[in-house]
């Protein structure tokens, strides 16, 4: 596949706003997780919460979109000069020639939950009768208006792979000549449906999550926003390949041999024209659930050299659900840009079944190619390969 230039990117999570805060946390092995303080009756767990969303106010022209998810999107869009980069692209190509493709698993459902607590005679109160907010497409509609874009707009909701798959969709739209550039990304925020839903599946840990630890006991949920601008051509940072697969093994449990995950990995490497040994850093899905880490760890162990540096970064941010793919893509791009390969924060004793590629501590060195895995519920899997291109 012809590479696509990644001309701007950013992420906001529990460790802070923008790339600098994220890179600092990764370098210092500093987790953003904290004891759960979300909601009226907080579950006894740890979360990756973004500070300041309660006080944040959208600009007057965007106030009709107000909800926690769109506030986080707005906060994330303002970091790292991202809005300015999109404005420049809009001037180059025109607003109809830039696609917007965003991933989310819950969108604005937190606001809808609130509206249901305010029912009067079976109806939402007047200030909650906002159909554009109470829809899974709310995020994309909001960001499209905020960025002044008029091209194709998609919302992808495939659980944890949502904002990884946005890169694949963008590549197809650009390759087919339907657009000249694409804004991709994802946003998900904490809400009752997420916290209590995952708790009902017995997947939530009462402690900070420990990916690939021998005594791991579940996930820590988080919230995040991330975005990237993709354009035709070559650049210092490039999307080289992607792979997608749905094994449909189970609603919430991965295929025991990682069938779909390996298919996605194979396709990503094939599109990039690379062998597994060419990958210098792997950002693993690594949720800290028993089965996910076992299956993914075995896959990486059998496919990559022992010297490959792999880690899960969910101990830093929590599992940000539909935003996990874009946040971890940003971490992979930072690894290429800075040479920083993160470790596994919170993890103390690696599970011997998971392979020697997984590293506890961060390391530095040239990263020419990075792989990012995102494996969602229902066996919906996506792998992305990013690479270092020529300096501009």
UniProtKB/TrEMBL annotation:
CDD domains: KAS_I_II. PANTHER family: BETA-KETOACYL SYNTHASE (PTHR11712:SF320), POLYKETIDE SYNTHASE-RELATED (PTHR11712). SUPFAM superfamilies: Thiolase-like. It comes from the Bacteria. InterPro entries: Beta-ketoacyl_synthase, Ketoacyl_synth_AS, Ketoacyl_synth_C, Ketoacyl_synth_N, PKS_Beta-ketoAc_synthase_dom, Thiolase-like. Belongs to the thiolase-like superfamily. Beta-ketoacyl-ACP synthases family. SMART domains: PKS_KS (SM00825). It comes from Variovorax ginsengisoli. Residues 1-388 form the Ketosynthase family 3 (KS3) domain. Pfam families: ketoacyl-synt, Ketoacyl-synt_C. This is Beta-ketoacyl-[acyl-carrier-protein] synthase family protein. Keywords: Transferase. The keyword Transferase applies.
